[in-house]
Amino acid sequence: MPSRLNSIDAQAQLDQLHHELRQCRKCAEAGYFIGSRPVFAGPASAQVIVVGQAPAKVETGRDGIPFGLRRGGQRSLLWEWLEQAGWPEADFRARQYLSAVTKCYPGKSRSGSGDRAPTAAERRLCAPWRERELAIIQPKIIIAIGRIAIEQFLPELKGQPLETFISQIFQRGPTTIVPLPHPSGVSRWLNKPENRAKVDEALAQLKALKNNLEIS
Fold first, then answer.
1. Dihedral (CA of 208, 139, 38, 87) sign
2. How far is residue 9's CA from residue 182's CA, in Å, rounded to a whole number?
């Protein structure tokens, strides 16, 4: 990995990336539904990146805030998890970076329950944006949310049950990857107490990482 850019150069490069990303039409030109402008947030100085699957419908408004309020004004469960690891929502949003495997809302699933998962082709089309984000920011920690994001960074886990690796952390060069389940209310995985205990273990390790690396 190249040496970390100075803060001014890094922010200038990230601003340019965001400018280009807002004009991206790759998926639309390939015939895929695009239900929003790209959704992302955070400074180039971030030491932690959260990478989700794709923006949700509630994140596609004028503000385009990642992991914004759910229906009924409820916060995403993600913020409860991050607070458990030592990051109040406002602090995390101000200092760290929020992204996704694909940057635009992919539409509802055919079943009508939840959002459609982006296809492998859509993920490939969007991959260069994510790779550029990572090259500019060079995070110390990547928090991969949900199976699609996890498998982007840890392809060796493809097909393995979540409970076999949630609560583990993975070192890839200078970056630590922390996999977490998707916080969506549609998921039934979190209904089991033993799975919630796995998440608690993962968050305890994330908090220890935060403290050891002196990340604010």
1. positive
2. 33
Cα(192)–Cα(199) distance, integer angstroms = 11
* 21 closest CA partner among 92, 148, 127, 94: 127
67-103 per-position pLDDT tens digit: 876 666 678 899 999 999 999 999 999 999 999 999 9
- Name the residue among 23, 11, 214 with its Cα closest to residue 129: 23
Give 149's contacts (C-beta < 8 A, 6+ positions apart).
51, 52, 53, 100, 101
Q: Which residue blocks in the chain are alpha helix, DSSP H?
A: 7-22, 26-29, 77-84, 89-95, 120-137, 147-153, 193-212
Q: Which CATH class is domain 7-211?
A: alpha beta
Judged by DSSP in three states, 172 sits in strand
Domain coordinates in residue numbering, the chain? 7-211
Instruction: Please provide the distance, in angstroms rounded to a whole number, between the alpha carbons at the two ends of the chain.
Output: 23
Assigned token pair, 166: 């949630």
The structure tokens listed for 185 are 């209310």
Do strands 175-180 and 170-172 pair parallel, antiparallel, or not at all (unpaired)?
A: antiparallel
What are the pLDDT digits (tens) for 107-138?
888 887 778 899 999 999 999 999 999 999 99
